[in-house]
Batch of 2 targets.
Target 1
Amino acid sequence: MPDQSNPTLRLTEIFYSIQGESRTLGLPTVFVRLTGCPLRCNYCDTAYAFSGGEVMSLDAILDKVRSFSPRYICVTGGEPLAQPNCLTLLQQLCDAGYEVSLETSGALDVSGVDTRISRVMDLKTPDSGEAHRNLYTNVEHLGLNDQVKFVICSRDDYDWARFQTDRFQLPGRVGEVLFSPSHGQVEARQLAEWIVADNLPVRFQMQLHKYLWNDEPGH
Ligand SMILES: C[S@@+](CC[C@H](N)C(=O)[O-])C[C@H]1O[C@@H](n2cnc3c(N)ncnc32)[C@H](O)[C@@H]1O
Ligand SMILES: Nc1nc2[nH]cc(C(=O)O)c2c(=O)[nH]1
Ligand code: SF4
Ligand SMILES: [Mg+2]
């Protein structure tokens, strides 16, 4: 029987870096990367988090986070919501006074996530290979503190993302609608030009850390 007085999580890494994505882009942030993911997006830049990792108690994770004296925390993975104790971690991070975001594929139910968290939900595009995993009912649970991201691999993906943005009236429903090129798959400039040509009410975004650190571990 697991000891729920001292819950644990399997995690790949904890590091302090510059937030490279989403609304808090550019801000110093502690990243807590949980291990494991039930999806296999063909562009995934964190396949090293699919397995392995280390089991840590929530107390030990909070101690490690505190050692950096951060203001912002990003819980990511892997797919963080694949571990049920993630919900407790998120709650405890909020209780400790941090500003917390959660990166999630949206394939798992987000409705149990503490509303103080900014949920950054990635609606998987057709060319990710995982669009069939999208749990569209999740969209109903999102609000102005949340963000929806589309990682775009092709012109077809762009057209699909534009359609979903309109279908769910995302710009009025969530705080940010992010269109990001799949790194190395679609020219960033091309995506930027499509957005301008269509006058889309979305935020273009590139993964800043790829330019600062070229995907080195720990950033
Ligand atoms: C590694 S995932 C972890 C959280 C969750 N599994 C998800 O997919 O949202 C964090 C974010 O990085 C994005 N990402 C992964 N590989 C990427 C790539 N090659 N180019 C652009 N974004 C990428 C994902 O789409 C997701 O939005
Ligand atoms: N610097 C940096 N910013 C990030 N924002 C989201 C990340 C992620 O892997 O989810 C990430 C990451 O891996 N590094
Ligand atoms: S859901 Fe996230 S972690 Fe999982 S394969 Fe896709 S991008 Fe990678
Ligand atoms: Mg990353």
Target 2
Amino acid sequence: MSDLLRVENLGISFGGLRAVNQVGFSVKPGEILSVIGPNGAGKTTLFNMISGIYMPGDGRVVLNGDDVTGMRPDLLARRGLSRTFQNLQIFQNMTVLDNAIAGYHLTESGSLLADLFRLPGARARVRAAREGAMALLARVGLDRAAETEAGSLSYGKLKRLEIARALALDPKVLLLDEPAAGCNAVETEEIDQMIAEVARSGVAILLVEHDMKMVMRISSHIVVLDHGEKIAEGDPATVSRDPQVISAYLGTEAAEAADA
Ligand SMILES: Nc1ncnc2c1ncn2[C@@H]1O[C@H](COP(=O)(O)OP(=O)(O)OP(=O)(O)O)[C@@H](O)[C@H]1O
């Protein structure tokens, strides 16, 4: 199967700091690739380059065979690459359903204006977005909370809502930045299962996550960064036993998680 996302020799500097240097990897449909590494290793910077927030200093991002290096996030989203952020980007005082509907507005140019002026087709589009949003909420187990104000949801449910919104654009590639951060063990497992289900539907998933048990459980493939460099790559069992990875980052915790 061909790569959905290929990252080639990606690099960026901030002043004198080489935050990411010559990093490359690829992800196929249905794969979950996790990027791990100590604080400041360059994981979020790498995500920001792939998702069009930072223009890479060097290298290329290839999405479905097309060079999309430095393309704006909204255009990338239309081409099938969506992301979530480390910090929740939920509208706390809107309902869960309206938050999910907000995910659709990127795909329909001019739809907000059309809705305001009640242009022909607007009502049908609003109805379609509503139905789509309800289906998404069912997919992440939040359909019964559709009319609840988002601010009153548990943290784990907010994280799931954020993933639902990223799925509104029907992405081929989904970037998840710390989807389990701040979640308890039960919430983390729920998110785990959801991510695995999304991958099974053929989406290529790129994950940054500090929860090593989760990473070892769900990743098909792991890339390890340290000081902006890729120091290892492979399946969870291989990476967790790599001496360089253990001394840079993992200690014995990951090896134990991989054995569990
Ligand atoms: N906009 C920026 N300007 C200057 N330096 C930056 C910027 N963004 C990131 N950095 C620096 O680049 C390096 C990599 O940071 P990054 O946030 O990508 O690491 P990370 O692996 O995501 O860390 P964490 O696990 O703590 O989220 C750090 O030294 C950071 O201080």
